[in-house]
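Lab notes, practical 5.
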Amino acid sequence: MPTYNASRFISESIESVKAQTYQNWELIICDDGSTDDSIKIAQDYSARDPRILVINNKYTKGAPGARNSCLDVSEGRYIAFLDADDLWLPSKLELQINFMISNMYSFVYSYHEIMDEGGGFVSECRAPGAVDAKLMKVSNFIPCLTALYDSYTVGKVYQPDIIKRNDFALWLKILNGEKVERAYCLPLSTARYRVNSYGLSSNKRDALKYFNRCLIEYGNCNSFEAYIYSAIYLVVVAIKKKFNFIYNFLVVKL
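Output from the prediction step:
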C-alpha cells in the first residue's frame, strides 16, 4: 500500500484489509513523503497489529517506488496491491487465492466496483475472462487493486518507474516474460476503486502518451503498432466512460 497524503481515506483502506476473511496476510504500507497525518495513522495501526509494517520509500518518489520498497521487504507468497484510498471487499483474498489454487493459476484479477470520492457506489466494471500480452495491448484490463500474483512462480516483479500507467507497464512486463502467459479473471467484484479529483489518475491529458510509451517499452510494439493500439484504446475508453453497460457486455466476450 503506497500512501501519500491519504489521511482522509487510509484508515478505511487498512480496515478493509483487517476485515478480510482470509487472515494470513501482511500489510506493508510505504509512505511517500506525506505531509499530513497518513504515516501517523499507519503507525498507530502497526503498533496494534504486528501484521502491519510501515516503511518509507527508498526509491524514486511516486507509487512505483513505494510499491517496490514494499516488495523489497515482503515475505508473503501472494503479492497484491491496494492504494490508500481504495478498498478490498471482505472475501477478496480468500476468493482469489482459492481461485488460483484450484485452477493452478499464477496471476489473477477480478471485476471491481467504482465509488465516488465520498464512497457512494457508481457502477461495476467487468473484465475479460483471461488476458495475454496481445489482448492487453488494446487496454489495461487488469485493475491494480484486484491483481494478485504468485511470487513463487512469477518471482517478485518490480514495477517500472514511470509517472503514469505504471501498473499497466507491470502487467505487460509480466505477460511478456517467460514465466506466465496469461492472467485469469475471477468474475466477481472483489474491490472498490475511488474516483477522485486529486490524484494522478484524475489528469487524463497525457494518459494516451504514457499508454503509448508502455506499449513501446514493455509491450514489444514498434511505433506504428503502438499508434494503432493507442487509437483502439481511445475507442475502448470512450465506450467504457459513456456506455458502461455496453462495455461490460462486450468485454466479458473477449
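Observations recorded by the TA: The chain has one domain: 2-251. The domain at 2-251 is CATH 3.90.550.10 (Spore Coat Polysaccharide Biosynthesis Protein SpsA; Chain A).
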